[in-house]
Amino acid sequence: xxxxxxxxxxLFVVVFFFAINSxxxxxxxxxxxxxxxxxxxxxxxxxxxxxxxxxxxxxxTVNGMFPGPQVFAKEGxxxxxxVVNHVPNNISIHWHGxxxxxxxxxxxxxxxxxxxxxxxxxxxxxxxxxxxxxxLFWHAHISWLRATVYGLLIILPKRNASYPFAKPHKEVPIxxxxxxxxxxxxxxxxxx
Length: 192
Description:
It contains 3 helices and 8 strands, in the order H-H-E-E-E-E-E-E-E-E-H. With 192 residues, it is of the alpha/beta class.
């Protein structure tokens, strides 16, 4: 017959096996030793007069910008974004392409993963970027506010890590959007 392991060795093997498998199931654990920094942003959701294509109109913006501000981070960083709602619409922000591992309530789809932020209220999104790098985007995730409330989410590789492609000589982010001559919320209200 084959040799058997003492009980203490068997326990060590089981604990070691669980620890190794935990790294693949919970990637945040494996990132902990290479933890990034915490990056803070504040989004003030307000009505703002915006002019494009020789037309001006009042629209919902973030920090008075259309499109909204660019969010920069490195893979492994923690993002803390305080969103303050100053408009009469409920709102939430979705971080498109971010894997919300053990932080699904920060994912942003209203009435699915979180209650929307009501008028005069704020909400703090707090999550770590795991397994993502590249140019993604964030946007409002309720009704048609996504037509004006959006921006870039640029995630750089960790320090001393390479891009999954040849490092670009220069980066020029391009954000495609659309311009509505009327209020998108009014269009959906009329359609309903």
